[in-house]
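Q: Got a minute? One more chain.
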Amino acid sequence: MAGDSMVRYARVGDGAHLAFRTAGTGPVDLVEVGGFGSLFSLESSDDLPQLVRFETELARFGRLVRFDTRGVGLSDGLTGPWSLDRAVDDVVAVMDAAESPHAAVLAPGWGGPIGIRLAVRYPHRIDRLIVV
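A: Always. Here it is, folded:
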């Protein structure tokens, strides 16, 4: 990610650590859920010019928050079965660690159901939901 910050870690309620980083400084926080963050780790995405360009453009209008989902890249692995509610809890933990009280959510691919559940459970924290 262009202008990326160093990797930081969010601690989830079950003790797992999720790697995340931010880029950009605009007035809107944009949290990427699922999709690219589950396919390309924070480390490997820097080697993908198309993804770097995409994230650079996103970071031009706001602060992009991107994280490695459980079992990907620098984040801890799964400690039990995957669930939609657990994935939502992970997003909230990352938002808290990134000091993002509310954000727009970009939910591509399988991140769509996560983004929808997140918006239903935490409507006061989700300004916009973009399901791709």
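A: The chain has a mean pLDDT of 90.
Q: Perfect, thanks.
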